[in-house]
């Protein structure tokens, strides 16, 4: 999404100094928001893959998946366990793409103002400040 917003402060004031210096500022930006990609979990080590080639094991889910979203732990790993490898508990019960990776939220912003130098010639001076990944 992108946008241009004319800030309403001091745009319609009768004081020419305030209107020239503080009025007429615009804020523009480009915003990118994406949800995280799907993520499948696997189990390493001695599992069904040693018996059946080109296969892999998934863990068991022992509760509901939660997302604490901290730097050390995006999701709660305590609800997963390694399958026992006996009886019906060979393959694990976590579904394909059961988790989501972190999403992306990026804001690139610009604040700018155009100052009129000469109305007859149409010359202007523009002041601009850019900020990326705000």
What does this structure look like?
The protein is mainly beta. The protein is rod-shaped, with a radius of gyration of 28 Å. Strands 1-2-7-8 form a four-stranded antiparallel beta sheet, with no helix packed on it. The longest helix has 7 residues. 5% of the residues lie in helices and 34% in strands. The protein folds into two domains: 60 residues, no CATH class; 67 residues, no CATH class.
Give the ordered list of helices and strands. Answer: EHEEEEEEE
Q: Note the beta-strand portion.
A: 25-35%
Report the mean per-residue pLDDT as an integer.
Answer: 84
Structural class: mainly beta
Overall geometric form: rod-shaped
Helix segment count? 1
Instruction: Quickly count the domains.
Output: 2
* Topology, number of strands: 8
